[in-house]
């Protein structure tokens, strides 16, 4: 079925930075995928290889909107497709674009999937993570998809673990409100190994994240932000080892 106009809207919230939100695929490799990648939302339209006359080989459209969308707050998404005009909206920020006539030739199945790709490997190189979080108000051309699923209608099928509620994760954050704020943990005497994991979020490009002194080696390390990059500085008594940097 080829609708004259497709309108898809939903709201989501998650703490995962990556995951498939929406997928629709055709027989010849054409597909539309909306996914969260490093906290940003991308709409990928892949025109496949089905007919080089109507659309070039491996033609792709990739639009990215938003940032820090993995903050466990609700975010709204709207996709409007009419002929070759597409409007992609995330939290009231809209990107309008024309698909140069090629989009209307997409050979798509009518099946839409939310939260993952139904058949692993069907999309060839697609091996992305399923969405882990909450959806609400999923509408496709005015049809309430979640309501159909809740009433176990035959046109909907559910894969994996799903509940019709949104459980809040038990995460207790801490915010440092001044430049002199910090947390300190007393070490165990004689222990010379340190294992630390944490997540952080800041608008500042500089700042000390973690410091530790090691017991026997008379040294320690500093983990810090410098110009938006995470760096670690290892030091021993009498000499300083070179800094190691990662991330942007």
Automatic annotation (TrEMBL):
Organism domain of life: Eukaryota
Classification via Pfam families: Laminin_G_2
Segments forming domain Laminin G: 1-166
Protein name: CNTP4 protein
Lineage: Eukaryota, Metazoa, Chordata, Craniata, Vertebrata
PANTHER family noted in UniProt: CONTACTIN-ASSOCIATED PROTEIN-LIKE 4 (PTHR15036:SF40), PIKACHURIN-LIKE PROTEIN (PTHR15036)
Species of provenance: Prunella fulvescens (Brown accentor)
């Amino acid at each position: 079925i080829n609708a004259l106009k497709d309108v898809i809207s939903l709201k989501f919230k998650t703490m995962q930075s990556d995951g498939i939100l929406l997928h629709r695929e055709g027989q010849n490799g054409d597909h539309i995928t909306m996914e969260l990648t490093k906290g940003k939302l991308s709409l990928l339209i892949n025109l496949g290889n089905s007919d080089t006359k109507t659309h070039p080989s491996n033609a792709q459209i990739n639009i990215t909107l938003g940032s820090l969308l993995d903050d466990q707050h609700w975010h709204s998404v709207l996709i409007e497709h009419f002929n070759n005009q597409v409007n992609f909206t995330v939290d009231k920020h809209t990107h309008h674009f024309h698909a140069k006539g090629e989009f209307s030739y997409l050979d798509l199945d009518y099946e839409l999937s939310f939260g993952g790709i139904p058949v692993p490997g069907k999309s060839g190189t697609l091996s992305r993570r399923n969405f882990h979080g909450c959806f609400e108000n999923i509408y496709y051309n005015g049809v309430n998809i979640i309501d159909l699923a809740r009433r176990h209608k035959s046109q909907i099928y559910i894969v994996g673990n799903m509940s019709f509620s949104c459980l809040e994760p038990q995460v207790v954050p801490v915010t440092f409100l001044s430049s002199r704020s910090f947390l300190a943990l007393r070490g165990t005497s004689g222990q010379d190994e340190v294992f630390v994991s944490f997540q952080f979020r800041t608008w500042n490009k500089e700042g000390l994240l973690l410091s530790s002194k090691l017991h026997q080696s008379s040294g320690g390390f500093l983990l810090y932000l410098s110009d938006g990059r995470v760096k670690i500085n290892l030091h021993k008594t009498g000499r300083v080892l070179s800094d190691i940097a990662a991330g942007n």
